[in-house]
Amino acid sequence: MIARVLVAMDGSEVAERALRYALDVHGDAEIVVLHVTGEPSSMMGEAAGMALSEDLEGEIRDQAEDVIDRAREIAAEYDEEVDVEVAVGRPGKRIVERAEEFDTVVVGTHDGSLVDRLLVGNVAQTVFRGSPVSVTVVR
């Protein structure tokens, strides 16, 4: 029996499909959505703004707000509620660290190019290989 499900969401369409899958298949379970923002860095993307921000917590919350709102909207379509958590760090690593508290993990996967996988890494692959519980990968 699956009682607790961790769903990783990054704001992408495949992440939304992963949440919909979890709600369809594990609707009776407690579903927790985890959004992981990148670590603060002056070198790349969204994390650059975080590194320069005086209010790091506020910046993290602002960057995660769209994902949180979308997760709650999707759950409402199913007449369900989900808990949403935000973490900072490398997404695959953070998801694996949290996985032991759940019965299963649901993640979406991107069909990224080889360059994307080399530079960004493949979160689904990291979770699949490192998770102490079963993982469902949704496309």
Structural notes for this entry:
This protein is α/β, with parallel strands linked by helices and 139 residues long. The protein has one domain (4-138): Rossmann fold (3-Layer(aba) Sandwich), CATH 3.40.50.620. Helices cover 47% and strands 21% of the residues. It has 6 helices and 5 strands. The protein has helices at 13-25, 45-52, 56-77, 91-99, 114-119, 123-130, and strands at residues 4-8, 30-37, 83-88, 104-108, 134-138. Strands 3-2-1-4-5 form a 5-stranded parallel β-sheet, with helices on both faces. Helix 1 links the parallel strand 1 (4-8) and strand 2. Helix 1 crosses helix 3. The chain is globular and about 45 Å long. Residues 41-45 and 47-52 have low confidence and may be disordered. Belongs to the universal stress protein A family. It comes from Halorubrum rubrum. This is Universal stress protein. InterPro entries: Pterin-binding_dom (IPR000489), Rossmann-like_a/b/a_fold (IPR014729), Universal_stress_UspA (IPR006015), UspA (IPR006016). Residues 41-139 form the Pterin-binding domain.
Could you tell me the mean pLDDT?
85
Overall tally of structural domains:
1
CATH superfamily membership, which one?
Answer: HUPs
CATH domain class name: Alpha Beta
Report how far apart the termini are.
24 Å
SS-based class: alpha/beta
The main sheet comes to:
5 strands, parallel
Strand order of the largest sheet: 3-2-1-4-5
CATH topology: Rossmann fold
Q: Which range does the strand content fall in?
A: 15-25%
Protein name: Universal stress protein
Domain Pterin-binding: 41-139
Family: Belongs to the universal stress protein A family.
Pfam families: Usp (PF00582)
